[in-house]
């Protein structure tokens, strides 16, 4: 199966995993194991903006906890 991520009409959902890492996923596909939906479903541009605003520390959660204690 292929998916054209650049099609203007394409809709995506923003996913997050247990390490608080984000990903885009085609809105009409089931969410893959290990990922949860954030509730955001929109165009690629809008999803990218959401991720940029919310994923401010690229380090996995376990590394942040190990290094920062948070």
UniProtKB/TrEMBL annotation:
<dbReference type="InterPro" id="IPR038020">
    <property type="entry name" value="MbtH-like_sf"/>
</dbReference>
<dbReference type="Pfam" id="PF03621">
    <property type="entry name" value="MbtH"/>
</dbReference>
<feature type="domain" description="MbtH-like">
    <location>
        <begin position="3"/>
        <end position="53"/>
    </location>
</feature>
<dbReference type="InterPro" id="IPR005153">
    <property type="entry name" value="MbtH-like_dom"/>
</dbReference>
<dbReference type="InterPro" id="IPR037407">
    <property type="entry name" value="MLP_fam"/>
</dbReference>
<protein>
    <submittedName>
        <fullName>MbtH family NRPS accessory protein</fullName>
    </submittedName>
</protein>
